[in-house]
Amino acid sequence: MPTNKKVLSQKKDLVLCEDGSYTLFSHDFNEPYHSTKDGALHESLEKHVKPSLALKANEEKLTILDICFGLGYNTFATLYYIQKHKLKTKIHILSPEFDEDLVRSLDSFKFPPEFDDIKHIIKVVSKDFYYEDEQFKIEVLLGDARQSIPNITEKIDIIYQDAFSPAHNPLLWTYEWFKDVRALCHDDAILTTYSTAAAIRLGLYENGFYIFVHRAEMMRYSTVASLKMLEGLEYIDMELKKVRNTEARSMKDEDY
Ligand SMILES: C[S@@+](CC[C@H](N)C(=O)[O-])C[C@H]1O[C@@H](n2cnc3c(N)ncnc32)[C@H](O)[C@@H]1O
């Protein structure tokens, strides 16, 4: 099992994004936690929460794998969206994260006003790494995601694939990583990610995912992958891509 050998300095700077929400810049990974142009909250909502919940609109209960927890924007934006639209869907979120101090610090993070109504949930998660009420259950799985993912026993409906970039966080983007993720999935699971790279789409495709382009307003396009063919989305024929780009390869664990 590949493990992350990074020794974290934990140095981070607060950064204001163009949508008015705050994110951090990680000196360990040499990149921000969110696209500062798209904005932390805007990116979470448009690239992950809205497309996923639209595709799974008729489900009574959804289990979401949030890779990785970070500042918790994807998790908290999911709760915000569900409450704002008065949806009855029960949500269980599992989210690996190896930066325990970061999660502990979230109680005092400058989150956007949209999260004001869930402040009590943020407080509990940052202290207990766990929260549960009648509708929401959140579990932060402390430790290396490559170790924690194979131990998950729940079946997953939605994956938010939101690790740092493939260049800086390669072990969370390889063919083998997606194989472990795929093993947890329901047969109609979907995955959302900001990455549109051929190598990443190939790693998903080689694990049985169909690949689609997702477009949203004021946002760079992103990727939706699905284990079931979807109607009404912009489909990408990966066999054709392979013919046109014979150099393209999925990333492999052995290379890192
Ligand atoms: C881009 S940030 C995630 C942003 C997050 N989705 C949000 O909305 O705030 C990537 C996160 O992955 C975590 N991470 C990186 N490699 C990891 C690993 N192997 N296991 C667990 N967490 C990891 C980092 O500590 C960081 O918090």
Give the arrangement of secondary structure elements.
Elements lengths: L11 E5 L5 E5 L4 E2 L7 H16 L5 E7 L5 H12 L5 E8 L2 H6 L13 H10 L1 E3 L3 E7 L2 H4 L7 E6 L13 H9 L1 E9 L4 H8 L4 E5 L7 E5 L7 E3 L1 H7 L12
Parallel strand pairs: 4-5, 4-8, 5-7, 8-9
Antiparallel strand pairs: 1-2, 2-3, 6-7, 9-11, 10-11, 10-12
Helix pairs in contact: 1-2, 6-7
What would your notes on this structure say?
The longest helix has 16 residues, at about 40-55. The strands form two sheets. A nine-stranded mixed β-sheet has the order 6-7-5-4-8-9-11-10-12, sandwiched between helices. The protein has a three-stranded antiparallel β-sheet with strand order 1-2-3, with no helix packed on it. The mean pLDDT is about 95. It has about 260 residues and is of the alpha/beta class. The chain is about 30% helix and about 25% strand. S-adenosylmethionine binds near residues 44, 68, 70, 71 and 97.
